[in-house]
Amino acid sequence: MIPYLALAAILFSIGLFGVMTRRNTIGILMSLELMFNAANINFVTFNKYVVSDGLVGQIFAIFIVVIAAAEAVVGLAIVLLIYRNWKGIDTDHFTVMKW
Amino acid sequence: MTDYSWLVKNIYITALLPLLAFVMIIFFLRWKEKLSAGFSISMILLSWLISVYTLIEVVAKQGAVYEAFYSFMSLRGFNLEIGVLVDPLTAIMLVVVTTIGACVQIYSVGYMHGDPRFSRFFAYLSLFLFSMLGLVIANNFFMIFIFWEMVGLTSYLLIGFWFEKDSAADACKKAFITTRIGDLGFLVGLFMLAFYAGTLNYGAVFDQVSAGMIPVGILTAIAIFIFMGAVGKSAQFPLHVWLPDAMEGPTPVSALIHAATMVAAGVYLVARTMALFVGSAEASMVVAIIGIITSFIAATIALTQNDIKRVLAYSTVSQLGYMIMALGLYGYDTNLGHHSPGFYAGTFHLMTHAFFKGLLFLAAGSVIHAIHTNNIQEMGGLWKKLKFTAPAFCIASLSISGIFPLAGFWSKDEIVASASHHPVFLILTLAIAFMTAFYMWRLCFLTFFGEPRDAEKYEHAHESPKSMTYPLIFLAGLSVVAGWVGIPNVAPWFASFVYHGAEAYHPHWSWLMLVSFVIASCGIYLAYLMYYKKSISADKVAEKFGLLYTFSYNKWYFDELYDLILLRPIMTFARWMWSFDARVIDGAVNGTGWLTIKWSDIKLWFDVWIVDGAVNGSGWLVEQCGQILRFLQTGSVQFYVLFVVTMTVLFAVFKFNYIDMGFESWLLVILLVITLAATVGRMVSTLRVKTDSGSDEKES
């Protein structure tokens, strides 16, 4: 179980790093997908080793995949709007809520 | 009692008519002078008719008493009543008051002609007549006191009618305040009466007195206190000083109020409350002594005065003293069981005096109207100019001197008769009769006879209009005949009509009549010698009696005496109190204010620095915290994520129970920490790049 969880942790950290450091908004969305999938791995792992029978974790993972797709749609729509307003999708552009 | 006609039972109408005139003039008619005067006069004439009718009916019913009242206020068995009492005394007074009132009002049309406050004068006269008639018809002490004060008020208003003159303004204040002293006594008397008798109704009180239910000592005190009211109102010694000054008022006022009616109210009061004085010999003696002192002092002062109205004023005081003395002696004699004509004499003289003294004042007003001066030394020879006024004045003078068969002779004679058992009183009474005849005829000779002493004024003198002379003629007639109702043995009607006690007094001829007649004639003859024939020089007589003359001329120095013993100490005390007030009271008040201001200053400081400081300080602190914390709001979503994750990690590290934590959890934490470190490192490097480029841009 440990290697799977380690993999998930590494994936999550990489995704997080991407979210926090990427300038490109599309990149951030992609990094988010990594984090989702890290979570998926955890669900599947726990389903396999902790919950002995049933498919709860598996089903959860599939739901997350679907919702992540929907989320990507919303995220891309936001990115499009950002592009229209600032003629670019770098995160530097939309720090208008600054102090 | 019940068989009186409707008019007598509703006698209050006679008083309400002048009140109606007052109200109408004040509210509706005062812009129309003729209408005001006309309305006022018609009301008093109507009132006069009712009064005459009442007198006739009371005479026809042989003096039966009519009384009606209802309870005005009831306090634990003590009743204050409003009611009327019609008896012979009331009926006589009604006729006297309305007769003089009507004459004076008609006279005023001429006398007050052209005065800017013509209507108001009639309004005040009407108000006075209402008060006076109310005083006369009252059936209890409560009502008489109210009307008593009201006549005082109207007297004040009318003395000060020409208030532009300082002397008139001072005189009305003097009159009001001086009479107030007497009224205070009156009020105390009423309180005592209410306390000891438990009622203020005349009849009920007198019944208790005659039944001996009130101790004699108390009764004496009550009687003297009530007499104090009469002393003030009737200008008796020592409160007589206001009446001569009251002559500052218009002459019709002097005639109506200060000669015939209001000042007689004191005499009326004593006559009305005779039962109290009969019950107490001491009180009666006080009354008689005050009366004779007043009469004597006033007569001596009248001898030397030069102001025509002042001579008449002192004459009035003197005559009122006469009446008071007669009433006092009646009370004294009756108390001791003797028969006395005093009551009859006093009321009889009250009536005749009202007519001839009213006439004297009106005639004097006519003279003043003609010659525009009050000083008899500037007059003389006016008989030729004033064809009506002069004879009227002389008739009245004869009457007051006591010359047979004029009104004054009969009434004055009864006063002399009432003093006949008291030698001191008798001598003084006769002396006063002599002085009265002398000063009245001194006035007549100086005014109407001899050579004019002021030619210019004499030239411009003219007889007064008819509205003024007709009342004079009417009153002159009354001054002659009014006494004939009391001729002993021939027509002793008045004595049997107005009587007090069980049996009527029957006047009779006596040698005293001859004596008083001779004395009066001597007085007139002396005046004739001194001021007409000039065979005795008036100046030489004055020189011979230098001290006495000065004393009399300066009115016995009463005003100066009062000034010295009363006014100055009071004024000094008042000034002392004023300085006490200015320093101590005002000091305390101002000091309190000063302390309050200082205390407020401290509170202001506390409020500004401590309370406001706390409030503003809180705000300032919050603001400063906000200033620091605002830097967290970078607007960068990634920074927020960093922040959230950092906090989560810190929370995990410090808060979780990491003894039980498995390897995989540690791995995650370590990985996250590394990620965070990497991110921060990345950010810092990015910022550095940015600032560099920013500064580059600035340089370029």
Could you characterize the architecture of this molecule?
The complex is a heterodimer of chains A (99) and B (700). Chain A has 99 residues and is mainly alpha-helical. Chain A has a single domain, classed as Orthogonal Bundle (Helix Hairpins), CATH 1.10.287.3510. Chain A contains 3 helices and no strands. In chain A, α2 runs antiparallel to α3. The longest helix of chain A is centred in the C-terminal third of the chain and has 31 residues. The mean pLDDT of chain A is 88. With 700 residues, chain B is mostly helical. In chain B, 75% of the residues lie in helices and 3% in strands. Chain B contains 28 helices and 2 strands. A two-stranded antiparallel sheet of chain B has the order 1-2. The N and C termini of chain B lie far apart (133 Å). The C terminus of chain B is likely disordered. At the A-B interface, α1 of A face α27 and α28 of B.
What's a concise summary of this model?
Chain A is an all-alpha fold.
Observed structural traits:
heterodimer, A: 99 residues, mainly alpha, Helix Hairpins, 3 helices, B: mainly alpha, 28 helices
**SSE ordering of chain A:** HHH
Q: Helix count of chain B, per DSSP? A: 28
Ends distance of chain A: 46 Å
Low-confidence stretches of chain B: 694-700
Give the SSE map.
The complex is a heterodimer of chains A (99) and B (700).
Chain A: H1 2-21, H2 25-49, H3 56-86
Helix pairs in contact in A: 1-2, 2-3
Chain B: H1 6-9, H2 12-29, H3 33-60, E1 66-75, E2 78-86, H4 88-111, H5 118-137, H6 141-159, H7 166-197, H8 202-210, H9 216-233, H10 242-245, H11 251-260, H12 262-272, H13 274-278, H14 281-302, H15 308-335, H16 342-371, H17 389-401, H18 407-418, H19 423-448, H20 455-460, H21 466-481, H22 493-497, H23 511-533, H24 538-544, H25 546-553, H26 558-629, H27 637-655, H28 663-699
Antiparallel strand pairs in B: 1-2
Helix pairs in contact in B: 2-3, 2-5, 3-4, 3-5, 4-5, 4-11, 4-16, 4-21, 5-6, 6-7, 7-9, 9-12, 9-14, 11-16, 12-15, 12-16, 14-15, 14-19, 15-16, 15-18, 15-19, 16-17, 16-18, 16-21, 17-18, 17-19, 17-21, 18-19, 18-23, 19-23, 24-25, 27-28
